[in-house]
Every structure is written in structure tokens, then in C-alpha cells.
Design brief:
Elements: E1 2-4, E2 7-9, H1 14-38, E3 50-52, E4 65-69, E5 91-92, E6 108-116, E7 125-130, E8 133-138, E9 148-151, E10 167-169, E11 178-180, E12 182-183, E13 190-192, E14 200-206, E15 209-213, E16 219-223, E17 227-230, H2 246-251
Antiparallel strand pairs: 1-2, 3-4, 4-5, 6-7, 6-9, 7-8, 10-17, 11-14, 11-17, 12-13, 14-15, 15-16
């Protein structure tokens, strides 16, 4: 007797088994043919830790603004990321990654007024100003209060002397220069190497393109007119600082893991059975072999 999908039949009765298998294959084929019409792949929406609130007038400001945390929920209130929790109430600052318009000959000079950590980004912020205009930019590694940074859009025949903190077109920088906040399209604003500790290196110039090596070891070719800032982004060791405990990580907005590998009783979920004790089996004895001669 054999039991196949709820039917009991003899081994010799192959007709019933063949009909059952044919019906099953037809049902699977029909299901697969209908599947592309009935099911659709649900789009994945990235949910950040929160979203900033823009000023009412929509203009740039250096004042602190409200930052609303998402808690891992989408706009409908459904939890789509269970690893994001609450966190402390923080403000955010509008950062200006665009390069101001400056004269090609003289350039623009700005003074660093204040440097402080960014509550929602990894790189530190630097408040710079010139005249009556102030803005927040990305602080480089060795920036200090009172420094003067320059922005120049001139591309001379001979490469300029790259000073840390100054902004120049990629075509004006010498080989081997470390840069950050790089434009992909001239006039678009910085888009590459803006995280804490990020930087790219100018490798070579081919035709009207400049080859850069990114932190991922990939190489990218950009136009001579793309602006970049000399130096490395500040707060380079932010990934090396360990968490002091679970409480600090939860306070920062990270929910605990699932606890799958935590040893617990069956009351709190699936019980992880202890591993079996190590059993040492005795080695089998070695038998002596004797060769019998025919004498």
C-alpha cells in the first residue's frame, strides 16, 4: 500500500497515480499562468529615521528647525522598518552644499564663525559668513574657528596650490589632491563625498575629464568645471566609537534585534535547546594480523 496526496492505492494500480500527477501538474501550470495577472511586487519605500520640517517661507535660514522622527513607520502609520525606534528630540540645520558665485580672478573669501556636530548627519557643520550672508557648510578635518576659506572658479594653465578648505574646479587642482563635496554636474552643487571622513583623490586628467578615485575604490570621470573642496570631511572616526551599552543604542533610536539567538524559555518565544554534550567515543582496538604460510 502507498499513500500519495490523500489517496490510497496499490502499487500495481498506476492509472490513479498518473491521473493524480497530471492533475497536480495542470493545477501548478494554471496557477503560474494566473500569477502574473493576480500578484504584483510591492514597491519598497525607503523610510529614513525622520524627515525635517522646512521653514514656512521656504527660504534658506541658519536657525535650528524641527526634525520629526518616523519611528520606522511610513506615511500610513504602518511599521515598515522594525529596527528604527524613537530617539532624543533634536533640531536640524539647513546645509548649503552649493558653491557661491565668485569672480574668476579674485574669488570669494568667507570666515569660519562656529563649528559644531550635526545632530542628523555624520559630518560636522561649519557656520561661515561674508558680509551680511551666513550659511552652513561641511567642515573639513582640520578646520578651526577663525579660518578663512576661499572659493575660486578660475582654471589656470598651471595647477593651483591646493590649500585645505579652499574650493576650486577639478581642472585647476594638481594630481593627487584630496577633495570632498564634489559636483557631478557643474553648478548642481556637491553630491559626492559628503559623509563623515569621506574623500576622493584626483588621479589624472584625460582630455577634458578629470579621473577621481572614490572611497569605494571606483573611478569616476567628471568635467573640468565641476567644483570641489580640498581636504577630507570632518569626523572621520565616527564609525570606530563603540556603543557603551544597550541603553545608549536604544536612546539613539535603534530598536533591539529579534532575539533569535538569545537563550530564553518557551514562555517568551521559541526555546533554544541547549547543545548536546560532547561524547568521546573509545577508539576501536587494533587487531594483529598474521600471515599463514602454506608450509
Amino acid at each position: 500500500m502507498a499513500f500519495i496526496k490523500g489517496f490510497i492505492c496499490h502499487w500495481g494500480d498506476t492509472v490513479l497515480v498518473q491521473q493524480r500527477l497530471l492533475f497536480r501538474s495542470y493545477r501548478l501550470a494554471a496557477y503560474r499562468s494566473r500569477r502574473k495577472f493576480k500578484t504584483e511586487r510591492r514597491p519598497f519605500h525607503y523610510v529614513p529615521k525622520g524627515h525635517p520640517v522646512l521653514p514656512p517661507d521656504g527660504k534658506y535660514t541658519t536657525e535650528p528647525l524641527t526634525y520629526i522622527r518616523s519611528g520606522g513607520r511610513d506615511l500610513n502609520g504602518k511599521v515598515v522598518n522594525a529596527k528604527i525606534g524613537g530617539g532624543p528630540k533634536v533640531n536640524w540645520y539647513m546645509r548649503d552644499d552649493h558653491y557661491p558665485e565668485a569672480e574668476e580672478t579674485q574669488g570669494l573669501e568667507e570666515k569660519v564663525l562656529r563649528i559644531h556636530p550635526d545632530p542628523i548627519r555624520t559630518a560636522h557643520l561649519a557656520l561661515v559668513g561674508t558680509g551680511n550672508h551666513k550659511r552652513y557648510i561641511i567642515a573639513h578635518q582640520n578646520m578651526k574657528e577663525g579660518d578663512i576659506i576661499k572659493t575660486n572658479r578660475d582654471i589656470p594653465t598651471i595647477s593651483v596650490r591646493a590649500m585645505e578648505g579652499n574650493s576650486h574646479p577639478l581642472g585647476a587642482l594638481p594630481m593627487g589632491t584630496i577633495v570632498h563635496n564634489i559636483e557631478k554636474i557643474p553648478g548642481e552643487g556637491g553630491r559626492v563625498c559628503r559623509a563623515g571622513g569621506a574623500s576622493a583623490q584626483v588621479l589624472r586628467k584625460v582630455g577634458d575629464k578629470v579621473i577621481l578615485r572614490l572611497p569605494s575604490k571606483h573611478e569616476i570621470a567628471l568635467s573640468f568645471n565641476c567644483m570641489a573642496t580640498v581636504g577630507q570631511v570632518s569626523n572621520s572616526g565616527h564609525d570606530d566609537i563603540p556603543w557603551k551599552g544597550v541603553g545608549e543604542k536604544m536612546s539613539a533610536g535603534y530598536r533591539p534585534r529579534t532575539g533569535w539567538h538569545h537563550r530564553k524559555t518557551g514562555y517568551h518565544g521559541k526555546k533554544i535547546k541547549p547543545k548536546r554534550t560532547f561524547i568521546v567515543k573509545p577508539t576501536p582496538p587494533k587487531y594483529e594480523t598474521y600471515k599463514l604460510s602454506g608450509d
